[in-house]
Every structure is written in structure tokens, then in C-alpha cells.
């Protein structure tokens, strides 16, 4: 903005008193306002005013506003700058204050102070304009010479800076385009000057004087720059070190500490250059880095971009462009590691070994990405870790749950403040090699948002055809990901985007049976917990019956995570006892040990000689090992959380047990029905999805059409089951949304029980989709469902005939403990669900003969 432009400032101006800095016409300043008069000015003038005129204020330098508005005003500086308030930002912290952004327009001189409160207002005279009109013509020649000289120095100074920096190029253009008389003010506010010098320039009302005073300042700046460039050059010659051109600001004020700091920075940049040149980055990356380094050297350190560029270069140097670990893959050893780390999971281990074997033979990693799908706590993550161990590779887990921004994967462009690389590049930086095992955890929980679809970004990462030139937005150069071994985990495939699923080979990891859990607990979880709590098997003993008790009464899960936590709780409690015992070890009571050994045999509910509850008596040290029996369990974990409630709930007609599949594993589900007088309405509760509602309608229709055949009547004795009757079907655990067709057979059985008045067998569970003609269609998740039924202690399981093949996946001992009924139609389901069958033939013949 040119001083003395067409803007005519008002003759009365409210005054803002400043003392920390000096605003010159044509420049912009940010100033903090917290003294009473200045605050009043902002509140009642700037924030309330509506016209452009009301945003023009007079900024008086070198005058501080008194801290109380009762105090008198100090002497005001004679000359000030009329300014436009461009922005007002208020804040209450740490005390109420405003931050004002003001742009200087022109000089003015105070003629008379009109009022002091609530804020000072003065009658003023605009100065810059007068100067031009009066003196402008007279000394044109002299001024012309002066301004020419000034212009030359200004150009020389600007050209000493790096013209590739956009701000410098812009300044160079401004020099040509701005009116000459505006230049002294503008350049004074740009170059390094003290407040005192700025004040002198402000006070220099005559343009000629201003030019004369500014030229020495420019010359000083130019000399300083020259000196700096000279030192830089000589250093370069000495030992080929490169020194960044420092911001010229420091020259006039360089104290010793600043110099040292500068020196350090030089060294850092030199080191950085060395690292860049010696790193093994790709040619393209090296080119980009050297270009950025060149820019960095010429950048003033105070520029925000300086830190940004430096961080970028440091990341580029740190990335493992060519650094990798050597694979030591031996299938036999891999099998041993997998077997040692994990019990059971035979199918998964077999597939992983196949995958590794192919890798060994083919020496490259192209191929589908393995994706382990199963309930939580079944060991998906820990198998991933074992794979890394068998290969001798680094392991890194990337949690994708809830990630909804594609820049999380692919990074932010460097133009953003706070931009950073994505998780893939960050992970590589963390592990420091380019061939780690990356575990993409919870790919089914990726979310979408306005910031783009992270799944789409993952596509490129996972595609072996593309990922050798993965370009992170932050790096902006390609990085080769083809050596990285990606493994994904998920709880369900339903929510994995199809395109992503297409690139992965899904391996189902089902839940564990009770026996498997006991084995896992004793082989892996208990030893791990003991170690974590600093206990030894000589101090604590958890017999298998106790583990089994924890599994059935304190946990209900497909995996072993809750079991692990409960074991942890037990170890913590025992650790306290042991620590207390050690405290009293000064007088150990050896006689107790033998007794403790004895009691290991008694692990019944009433055997509690040295259980932890008894050791509550702190007068005696606890006997070792502390045996965890049911009493101790109750003491530590509280009363059992789950009861074997199945038979109780089947004590009246209209209840049946179904089997459901959830991403957390299989579950048993009670379906309840009741009938009441009404108008033939069906009410469904328990947060059901559309498919499940349709199953309920199908079930009722089928039963209505077969009511006579089965002799089913409603409360009024009618074969039309909905005649004057309402039916209510409820699926407990109403807070959980349920959907899917597999509850069909359960609903039919439950209603058949309601209308026949007979009880469904208490140890039967069922699953299967139904059709209107009474056929039973296959459903998914059979293994998880069967395991859930087994966990709940049920004995007979009705599954669709066409699901027979799925039974092979179930462990033999589980299969032996259960009876499976393979049903092709609903008649068979009902026959199996009721004691003595639900056959109607005999009764029908009987009825027929009667008729
Ligand atoms: P997920 O990733 O499937 O949710 P984790 O891999 O985190 O489950 O497993 C939870 C814990 O259970 C881990 O400490 C793991 O070692 C243990 N675990 C799970 N399955 C097994 C198994 N078959 N053998 C040994 N430990 C297991």
C-alpha cells in the first residue's frame, strides 16, 4: 500500500498507544492489546463500528498506555501512523486480551487531544500527502537522484538473496511496481532495524530526509550479507563444507550465543548433506533431496518452511531405502517356532507354512496377502508376530481400526502445516529395514469420511503389481514396498471393502474349544503371566479344574483374551501374598511346606486348606505353593459371572435355543414367544434386522398352514393360530442388533412349542434357514456355533443337512460329545427338538379314521 494514496483519513482519530514496536506506513503489524484504554478502543470502536471509517485508527508509537484508566495519559509521541485494523482476535487466556492486525496507511501528526477517556481521541493532520504536495515539485531533481540511489541499493540487497524463494522474487517485483516514495518505509520494516531506527524513520516527515536516513541502513545490511557470504565461501574452500546462508537479520544483533547457535546449525546442515550423499536412496529421491537441501541452505531459519524442509530431509535420510534383514527361512524351523508359540490352530499353521514354503522356493513375495479372520483373542496377531520371528524379520503392527482418512495411509502433502508421512512410511522408519512384516490389524474396521477412503489407499499398498513404486504424498517420491510382507487381520469379512478383500486370501481362525483353551492356558498363558508377575511355579499352582472353572464360569468368549486377563488377576493377587510372605521370611515356617504339597490333590469345592482365602491371616507367611482352588477363585475374581442356566430357561413352552454367529464368535440365543388375546398381530422385539423379521413371518406362515397336521391350536382352540390372538416373539440381549436367516428353525420350534404346549428339550440347540415349503437351507459359521453350544453344555445340535461337510472342521473330541441331527426339512427339526418326537403321522391317521 502506498503512503499518501487516495485514502483520506478522518480528521479525528481514536488513538492506539503502543510501545513495543513501531508501525510504518505500508507495513503490517500484529500487536497485543490488554491495557484498559486500548481494550476500550477495540471494544467500543472496532468491534461495534460498521463502516470502513470506523476501522481506521491512529497508532501512536513509543507511548505506553497506563495500566489503570484512572492514571493520566503520558506524553503522546507527536507523530503516529494511521492504520486500518484488519483483524481482531480475542482470547481470555491467560488474561482477557485482543490481538490486532493493523496495516499502516500514512503518517499523521497530533494537533490536539480531544478526549482521554474511555480511549484517547485526537484531532490530527495527515502528513504524507502534504509532503508530496508541497515539497514534491520543488526538489524533484534532488529527490530523483536520492531515490535512484536508494532504489539501486534496494535492488542490490534483494538480489543478494535467493531469488528462488517465492517471497524474495515477489519483493523484487514490488521494488519496481511500488511508488518510490513508499520504498523507505517498506524496506525499513523488512530489513533488520531497531525500534529506535524505525521511530526515526517515522519521525522523518520530509521524504528527502527519509531517503537519506534509510540508505545507511540498507548499506549496513548489504555489508553484513557480504561478510556472511565471504565466511561461507572460505569455509567451503577449506574443507568443502557447505554453509547455509543465514538470515541477514542476525548480523546487526548477533550476540555470542547466537553465533554459536548459528555455527551449530551450519554443522547440522553439513551433516545432513553428508548423510544424504552417502545414503542409498533412489536416484529420483536423491535428486529431490539435493534440490530441497539447496533451498534449505538459502532459507532464513525463522521461516516455518525451514523446519518443514529439514524434517523432510531427515526423514528421507532415515528411511531404509536399501537396508534389509537377511531372511533365514527354513521350513522345518518355522514349523517348530509356530508349534512352540501356538497350541492348536492346525489349519492356520498349515496354510502359513505353505505360504512360507512357496516364498522360500520362489524368492519373491508376489502373491495374495494373507488375511486372518476370526473372533478377538484367538491369536491372529500373535501368529503374525511368529511369522516375523520365523523369517528373522522385523515386525510392525499398524492398527487400522477407525482410520477414516486416506492421508493416514498415504501421508499429507507437504503444503499442509503439520503434514506428516502416512503409517506405512512411518512404520518403515520405525523398523529401519525395508523388508519387515507389517500386520495390518483390523482391516474390517476401516471407516470412510470426507477425507477420502483409506481402503482405496490400501489397495495400492497391497497390490504386488503396484507397490514397488508406492508414492506417499509427504515423500512425493516412490518407495519400493515390494519386499514388505503384509498380513491382515479382521473379525469379519462382511465389512472389508470388496476390492480390498479381492487382494487377500482369507484364512478363517475359529474360536477354541474348552479343552483347547485349557491347554493354551497351561502351555502359554500361565507361564507368561507368572513371568510377568515375577512368580515361579513353586509359588503358585493353578490346577486344570480351576482353569476349566474360570473358562466356564468367568468367561464366555471364543478366544482366550478374557481368560488371560483373569489369570493375570489371579497372579496379581498371589504376588501380593508372596510379597507379604517374603517380608516376614525372617522366621520361615518350614513345617507348612509339606502340608501344602499334600493338599494339591484336594481340589474339590470344599477342599480349601491353604487356599488364598485362608492366607488372609497375615500373621503367618503363606504356604508355598499357593493353590488356586474354587474358594480362592471366588475370593479373587468375585462370584461366578455365568451360570449354566440353560435348563432353567426351558422350563415352560415357547422357548427354544438358537445358535448365532457374531464377529466375536458363536453364541447361543434364546428365542421366546408368548400369545395373548388380540387381532392377529405379530410383535418382534430384540433389535432385529429385516432378514430376521422375514424369517419370523415365514415361520408363522408355515405353522399356520401346517397347524392342522400338527394339531397346533391357539389359546382360543382355533387352528388359525392368529385368530383373535397376538403373538410376541422376543430375542433376548435386546441391545445387540441381530440379523440373518439362520434363526428360522429356532423360531418355528419355539412357536411349535408355544402352540402345542410341549417343552423343547433343554439340551437342544439349532440353526438353519427355512423356506415357505418347510425346507431347511444351509447357513454359515457352523464351527463357531457348534463350539458355542458345546461351551454352554448343550448335547444335541440340529443343523441343516447340507452343512454336514462343515462338521469335519470340528475337533473329534467335541464331535464325540455332541449328537448332530442333520435336518433337510422342518418335520425333522421338530422331531429332534421335542422329547419323543413331534411326529404327527400316528395322530393324523387316528384323526382320519375318526373322521
Ligand atoms: P487377536 O489378534 O486374534 O485378537 P491375539 O493374537 O492378540 O489375538 O491373542 C491374544 C493372546 O492370546 C495372546 O497373548 C496370544 O499369545 C494368546 N493366544 C491366542 N491363541 C493362542 C494359541 N493358540 N496358543 C498360544 N497362545 C495363544
From TrEMBL:
**What keywords is this UniProt entry annotated with?**
Acetylation, ATP-binding, Hydrolase, Nucleotide-binding, Peroxisome, Protease, Serine protease
The gene designation is Lonp2
Highest taxon of the lineage: Eukaryota
Task: State the family it belongs to.
Answer: Belongs to the peptidase S16 family.
- From the Swiss-Prot or TrEMBL record, give the protein name: Lon protease homolog
**Residue intervals of the Lon N-terminal domain:** 13-222
Hydrolase is among the record's keywords: yes
Q: What are the positions of the active site? A: 742, 785
